[in-house]
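Morning!

As promised:
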Amino acid sequence: MQRILSRENVIRWAPLLVLVGLIILFTAINPAFFSQRNFARIAIAAAPALMVAIGVTFIIVMGSIDLSMEGTVGLTAVLFCFAFLATGGTLAAGAWVAVPLILVLGAIIGLVNGLVHVKLRIPSFMASLAIGFVGTGAAVLITGGDIVKINDDTFRALLTWRIAGFPLMVYVVAVLALLAWFIQSHTILGRNFYAVGGGEELAHASGLNVRRVRILGFVLAGVFYAVAGILQVAKLGQAESVSGANFMFISITSVVVGGVALWGGIGGIWNTVVGVLIVNVINNGMVVIGLPDYLQDGMLGLLVIVAVVLSTDRRSVSFVK
Amino acid sequence: MSTFIKDFIERETISRRNFLFASAAGLTTAAMPGVFGGGMARAATDPALAWSFRDRASAYWNAIVSGGEAFTESLGKPKDAMTSLINEGSSEKSLSDIKAFLAKNNGACAIACDPNDSPNARPVAEAVQAAGGYVSTIWNKTDDAHPWDFGDNWVSHMSWSDEKPAENTARILFDAMGGKGGVVHLGGIAANNPAIERLNGLKNALKDYPEITLLDAQPADWDTTKAAELMASFLTKYGDQITGVHCANDNIAYGVMEALKAEGIEGMPIVAYDGNPEAVQMVMDGKLLATVFTNPHWGGGITLSLAYHAAIGAFKPSEEPKEHREFYGPTILITAADAAEFKAKYLDNVPTYDWTDFWGPSNGPIVYK
């Protein structure tokens, strides 16, 4: 019993306990919350956000930050629509080509992001924010402020085709989350992220090419942002220059709420998954229990602080900046 | 981008430039009254043209700009004879850009402008008056600031009243619901004036339909993604009680439709606002009951035209009645019956307007409550 309740164990499982606690709380106030249909709704809302959050998790584990997600998601979503329409407009007609194309584009944006950060020695905060602005600007330029729509029913099956009550996109996201976990835990690159985040100088002294690891981290994040862009189109059937709006707040909040430390080296994919679910459960639950809209933002802020307090091991750091 | 970070960076980068612009413009405008006698209106033969607006990222502002350009071309000038002053949502930038433009052209300017927020209208008008230029504004001004208090220099102000059109869309919605059931409203950013007016319109219509309940009204911030998520939460909370949806704009309606599509719900009565091309198509396809068009192309052209014609002395604003200085812009209700005709007339071919018919399509004087 003593061992189960050890500090490490409590902190490891705290985010999940917060999630369960929230579900119990919302269900107690409005039982309609606890239904398979509502969980499917939460899952749809969470799907693109989870891809963004997983992408940025790799960067945060390295102790850096990536703020390019809104621009990258907006630009990849818009270009995905254009590529999809240009290659036939339906999956059957060969428009599936747009998917690998956009994933490569996401990787390229991430590569540029990483190169600017590492080669020009600009802090990742500033470099990625700037690249994000460039992405949004490019999306505005390409669309001229207009909306691009995709009406292919086969592609939209990601949203409309349900297996066991959950749409296809939820399963796609689950598989990609497993893939991300595999990269994190079973590849050299994934371990190197932790090496860099846990102690960059030590990693460097041990012969690790830290700059290469950093650049690869941004490339990987870019690919996940591109997936989010595609899923955003699947979810809404359209893209515009602001398709990536709000992802910065949602993803970084989720990562931190899930227990990934912003100073690097602590936490991982499963923390992020739970974090994204916590934030989306809060967003959905506040409406379902009928909290007045003018209280919702304040309540979200409060719950985020509570979740972070419970789920991060703050005793291991001497100071927080 | 997160608006907070974006705004912050904008402020930081702009403040230095602002200072330079403002001091340059300040010197010029300070020197001006001495030379030209108290900023008295002077007729210019060829005033410089400018449109000051928010950004290029929305169909709405692009339509405004296209109207301004169409007017500029009607003068036999190239499109780029009209300068775009993009304020990106910053009132400070809006004002400093206008001051810089006035200084550059020595006050011989015809400017069309959305001052970005209400309190900014007065400093803009003061700057233009001090420099002896001419400005026509749209959307934002405080209730106590009036063009006629600024001589001829603040030529006109046009706004749009959304309450009545939103009430009309609500009536169409309620009739489609058979006069009974539950309705939810997904609104704009809660503090925005159009968001408040559009919700009020819905509430006005509700008084005549006692068997219809407003189940919930919450802000979706004009945003498609947020609207989809809010609608999903509404479905959990109210389920089958929802028999109609009133949306504050077209973007919100797109999100609502996708949330319903995900659930396999078809044929839900929905109304929207703005008259964007996609929404008009949806009205034609029967997916949307109604939307409202405010003709931004005409608004963009006529606002610049008013400033231009006052600047060249074609008419003297101070001799015009008050309803020619402050007036509502046109609103056109689009339903299934007239959507095809509307599309052919306004969207497929942009109509050629008579840019000297300043008040023909307008919608009466602005009324204060």
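Chain A has a mean pLDDT of 92.

Hope this helps with the figure draft.
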